Amino acid sequence: MMGTQAKFFRSFSRVELQTLSFVIFTGFFLVSVTLLVLSAGHFVPFPSLGSWLSPRASLLTRAGENDTNNQNVDLRSKPLCDTSDRRADICDMEGDIRIQASSSSIFYVTSSIRNSATELQGTWKIKPHPRKGDRPAMSGVTEMSVGYLSTKQEAPKCDINSTVPAIIFATGGYMGNFFHEVSDSIIPIYISSHKFDGEVQFLISEMLPWWMTKYELLLKKLTHHEIINFNKDAMVRCYPRVIVGITFHKDMGIDPARSGGVTMFDFGRFIRSTYSLERETATKLQGANPEKRPRLLIIARSRTRRFTNVDEIARMVGWQGFEPVVAEMKKNQSLAEFARLVNSCDAILGVHGAGLTNLIFLPTNAVVIQVVPLGGMDNFCYADYGVPTLEMKMKYLQYGIGVMESSLVDRYGITDPVVINPKSVQAQKEGWRNWTLIYFFNQDVKLDVARFSSFLTHARELLRE
After folding, report:
1. Nearest CA-CA partner of 264 in 158, 390, 402, 77
2. Where are the transmembrane segments (predicted)?
3. Which of 102-116, 223-237, 297-311, 447-461 is predicted least confidently?
4. Quick check: is 437 in a domain?
5. Residue 227, domain extent
6. Which contiguous run of DSSP H or E holds residue 267?
7. Where are the beta strands (DSSP E) in 309-388?
8. Dihedral sign, CA of 127, 132, 133, 134?
9. Which of 233, 267, 361, 426 could disulfide-link 431, Cβ–Cβ 3.0 to 4.6 Å?
10. Does position 413 have pLDDT exceeding 70, yes or no?
11. Is 334 part of a structural domain of the chain?
């Protein structure tokens, strides 16, 4: 029997033997797969098997109608708009994008092969400002319609074709408060646009003339193109990519995990570059030289949460070896001018409030001292200004005032729950509104300079590090 088999195989050429082996192997493989499928149902789906066996054959079997189905699946799996974030809705689309500002509409024009009204969500309603859910802030923001438009339908004809992307955002909300201008507007604009290196166009809804004047230098640093007033634009503008809305991470902050590694330290360098601020690093004290006097800016608020003894504080600051600078940005003062003043200082001192937002102009390693008034607000005061300070590679000190340093003692008495138990105010009907009125808008601070002096000593020590 063995001899017969040997003669049988010797009767074939080498090429014929290779062919015969391949046929036997292939037959065995197909029989095995058939038995496996019959016994295990859909354990091995045939498209995947075909894809594994022959990529070209797989592409051929997916041509035509199957290709259309796959493209539709991709579109459905990634909608034009993401509305899952708690603070901002963002639409990001690439292709044939047409903006018709006169109807507050943004169209993603796609072929009828790829799109059908029954398979894709028609439109999204977006207000491009990162105060989502805040009705007072969003009440004046224009709502925009974002959606697909088939080429079978009549698409608006392009008046202007652009080769760069566009970002659409609104400047409504709480503009007029420097903290919100930076936290809700400037930082999100930076996060959303810095990656384009100026090759992006801004279309701004609710464009405020004073806001534009205030932030013109900064905007021109982020875009090399004309800034469009969305609400007054009669053109149909067409772009290869459009982003509706600006990305918000957190108050006065950037999450590097979501920004491609960009940090608040990078933002600080961007700000200093934009306003041509000279000092990158704060004064570093060396040895025990008492003549070296770093500059300390005292934010002298003129309305709520004021220091009522500014002159006394300035004298103590001087006694502790600093050069005191008392200032608050004036109404008609340019931001660039005040930024230069802040940057000339090595430390900043202020009661919790928008004035401390000026820390973004300070040099690296500067010291920020936040005075926290009564009201049980230590945690969010730290979140608003402590965390950004540290993320910008500066030093941070937080001073919680004592009961006798608050003007609320004179108004309510030292034993009143407003003074000794702020949480009880929040527990009342309309508690949050009353709490805000009392502790934010009707409280001033008379700093106990003797108690506070140790913080100034600590600040000087931090400038030695």
Report:
1. 390
2. 20-44
3. 102-116
4. no
5. 79-248
6. helix 264-274
7. 323-327, 347-351, 367-372
8. negative
9. 426
10. yes
11. yes
**In the predicted model, what is the mean pLDDT of the chain?**
85
331 and 193, same structural domain?
A: no
**98 shares a domain with 52:** no
Residues in the chain: 465
Please write the tens of the pLDDT for every residue from 35-60: 443 443 333 332 322 222 333 333 23
Binning pLDDT at 50, 70 and 90, where does residue 27 land?
low
Say which residue the tokens 């103590």 belong to. Answer: 316
In a domain, 431, yes or no: no
Mean pLDDT value of segment 203-214:
96
Q: Which amino acid is at 261?
A: G
In this prediction the pTM is 0.81
Q: Which residue did the predictor score with more confidence, 269 or 427?
A: 269
Question: Cβ neighbours of residue 279 under 8 Å, at least 6 residues apart?
Answer: 343, 344, 363
Total domains in the chain come to 3
**Residues 127 and 209 grouped into a single domain:** yes
**CATH code of the domain covering residue 392:** 3.40.50.360
> Which residues, including other chains, have CB under 8 Å from residue 55's CB and lie 6 or more apart?
none
Using the structure block, give the residue that is written with the tokens 């025990």.
288
Q: Which of 114-118, 255-259, 318-322 comes out lowest in average pLDDT?
A: 114-118
Same domain, 144 and 113: yes
**Collapsed DSSP state (helix, strand, coil) of residue 113:** coil
Q: Which position has the higher pLDDT, 63 or 306?
A: 306
Q: Which of 448, 367, 442, 357 is nearest to 401 (CA)?
A: 448
Q: For the chain, what is the radius of gyration of the CA atoms?
A: 33
68 occurs within a structural domain = no
Bridge partners of residue 144, in order along the sequence? 126
Contacts of 394 by beta carbon, 8 Å cutoff, 6+ apart: 282, 359, 362, 364, 365, 366, 367, 368
Quick check: 111 pLDDT over 90? Answer: no
Same domain, 103 and 196: yes
Beta strands per DSSP E along 101-232: 105-110, 123-126, 144-150, 160-161, 166-170, 201-205, 228-229
One domain, residues 84 and 138: yes
In tens, the pLDDT along 319-335 reads 999 999 999 998 888 99
The answer to whether 392 and 386 are in contact (CB under 8 A) is no
Q: Are 301 and 370 in contact (CB under 8 A)?
A: no
Q: Residues 236, 123: one domain?
A: yes
> Domain check: are 221 and 318 in the same one?
no
Say how far apart CA 149 and CA 116 lie, in whole Å: 9
